[in-house]
Amino acid sequence: MDVLLSVEGLEKSFKDKKVLHNISFDVRKGEIMAILGPNGAGKSTTIRNIMGIMYPDEGKITFHGYNEIPRNKIGYLPEERGLYKNVKVIDILLYLADLKDYPQKKAKERALTYLKKFDLEGKEHVKMEELSKGMAQKVQFISSILHEPELLILDEPFSGLDPLSQELLKEEIRNLARNGAAILLSSHQMNVVEEMCDRLFMIQQGQKVIYGTLDDVKMKYANFKCTIRGKNDLEKIEQIPDVQRIESKEDSTVLYLHKDITPAKWLKKLPDDMVINELVMDRISLHEIFIDVATNKNLLLANEQMGEGDEHA
Ligand SMILES: Nc1ncnc2c1ncn2[C@@H]1O[C@H](COP(=O)(O)OP(=O)(O)OP(=O)(O)O)[C@@H](O)[C@H]1O
């Protein structure tokens, strides 16, 4: 896949506090790439540097290999929401499209199509201040895609949206990627990332901790866990080999297993008299990986496993 945006060796400090350390990743045409990390990790700072809202101390950002970032080819939904309040929906959409040199007639057609798609038909002449928060957010999303950007940067696009609107938005983001847009998405909703993204880049305290395809990350980093429903003595469960951690509730137990176990072999080690009403063997979720990384539990492991060589997997 063609690399559209390339970020190389980004460094950024605020006064004497360094908040980005050697951040490098790329976003390719037609992919949805997630940028993840705990609060304060450096996601928005990275995005603001890409958008030219601030400048890096070191490093290079290129678009199709060129240093010049063409603003009219980028769509951006910032973390801070809010468009001009005292302006009608259609006027703000056309104004923003015009700023990107996008033809007005086409912009109007697209605006009306998207308003309908996002359940905002008939709202084109309503003032922004009269919309609900979620409605205004959908208009802001429309403003970020109206000019058919090649690169779309979405900072927490789903926050504050009801489930139906989230689904509509997800579908539209997938559509845009299918049609060739490169999408960089920042989200704290790991289930959404797991559902939608092709690759992910995770930052912790301004440093890369994980970078790779979702499949790669799960294969290399998500150990197996075994959930057993059935009432069993904890003492007996504790005898089972290759278990890293046990979470036990009333009649359900989750066994987090060591890396490198072979599921079929491990299952044979369960005691014959164990009460099993139901058993599920799967890998830990991205949500659990995130918590492990954010609490530094597996930080070392993450760095070891996702070395430079894996980046272009
Ligand atoms: N303008 C600024 N001046 C000084 N420090 C800043 C500024 N902007 C961000 N920071 C600091 O940089 C670090 C990274 O912040 P950033 O907003 O990039 O994090 P984030 O990953 O987007 O977090 P969140 O998930 O909370 O949005 C934080 O320690 C923050 O306090």
From TrEMBL:
Query: At the top level of its lineage, which domain of life is listed?
Result: Bacteria
Spell out the coiled coil positions from the record: none
Query: InterPro entries recorded for this chain?
Result: AAA+_ATPase, ABC_transporter-like_ATP-bd, ABC_transporter-like_CS, ABC_transporter_ATP-binding, DrrA1/2-like_C, P-loop_NTPase
- GO MF annotation: an example: ATP hydrolysis activity
Report any Pfam family annotated for this entry: DrrA1-3_C
| Domain ABC transporter: residue ranges | 5-230
Which UniProt keywords are listed?
ATP-binding, Nucleotide-binding, Transport
The keyword Zinc-finger is annotated on this UniProt entry: no
Per its UniProt record, what Gene3D superfamilies does this chain match? Answer: P-loop containing nucleotide triphosphate hydrolases
Family per similarity comment? Belongs to the ABC transporter superfamily.
In Swiss-Prot or TrEMBL terms, this protein is called: ABC transporter ATP-binding protein
User: Which source organism?
Assistant: Caldibacillus thermoamylovorans
